[in-house]
Amino acid sequence: MSALPIVVVTSAAGRTNKELKRTALGLVQSAIRPLHWIVTQSTLEHERVTRMRPVRTSGMHIASSSINLDPQSVVVFLRAGDTLAPHALTVILEHLRTNPLAQMLYADSSHGRSGRFEEVSEVRRPGWSPERLRSQCYVGDTIIATAQTVEAAGGISLLADLHEHDRALRLSEHAQNISRVAELLTLSSQDRMLPSASLSAVQEHCTRVGINAICTTPYTVPVVRVARKCVTTP
Q1: Is the pLDDT of residue 160 over 90?
Q2: Which tens digit of pLDDT belongs to each residue from 89-100?
Q3: Angle formed at CA 45 by CA 42 and CA 49, multiple of 5 degrees
Q4: Which of 134, 144, 180, 195 could in theory staple to 105 by disulfide, Cβ–Cβ 3.0 to 4.6 A?
């Protein structure tokens, strides 16, 4: 399998060193490591994590802002505090090898920490649906996209610090081939099991793609209702 350059992008905005460290150690323990780990919005305190010896000696190139992406790169947006499964990057590369037209991927996730009195919960996600994505970010926090798709959607500098729903919508607008990887690739916290939703992200998305609709959040759960306006000719 030809190894494509992997770039992992994590926003440190509002995140603790403990969360960032968990993500860092997960990357270090990965079966194959990313070529670059971009940590945006990092403070001097956050940089204590990126200067840890296991990270410094991992072979990963650490950056605090966007880089010039190799056109063949695969970009993984990973939330601070989440960890990739040790085999995750291998699975992603294999999926792209067998699905060379894929431009955006999402995957299943597990939540919680296994312990004596607690089982890890699994979230198995549905297949790709643009309508479902408009209602909520059912694809989860971890999104994988080709370098061309990332650049077309605004680049790492724009996408890294967006709400996950906003980021997924923007990437989907420029990806013609989107698919689910039916494996547990990310370990996250229990409070990230339910999909999030951003009303403003959906409203802006509808404007960009030319959907004439009224977007509201009428429910107690995070879901955006997109009511398309019917235009009739008398």
Answers
A1: yes
A2: 999 999 999 999
A3: 80
A4: 144
Q: Using the 8-state DSSP alphabet, how is residue 52 labeled?
A: S
Whole-angstrom distance, CA of residue 84 vs CA of residue 118: 20
Q: What are the C-alpha distances in Å from 62 to residues 52, 65, 94, 221?
A: 12, 9, 25, 38
Structure tokens at 146: 């080709």
| pTM of structure | 0.94
Q: For residue 211, how many other CB atoms are within 10 A of its CB?
A: 15
Side chain identity at 11, as an amino acid letter?
A: S
Strand partners of residue 123 = 109
Task: Report CA torsion sign: 138, 142, 147, 151.
Answer: positive
3-state secondary structure of 195: coil
pLDDT tens column, 11-43 = 999 999 999 999 999 999 999 999 999 999 999
- Could you tell me which residue, 66 or 86, shows the higher pLDDT? 86
108: three-class secondary structure by DSSP = strand
Pairing of strands 83-84, 178-188: antiparallel
CA-wise closest residue to 12 among 70, 63, 69: 63
Q: Tokens for 57, please give them.
A: 């000696």
Mean pLDDT (whole number) for 59-79: 94
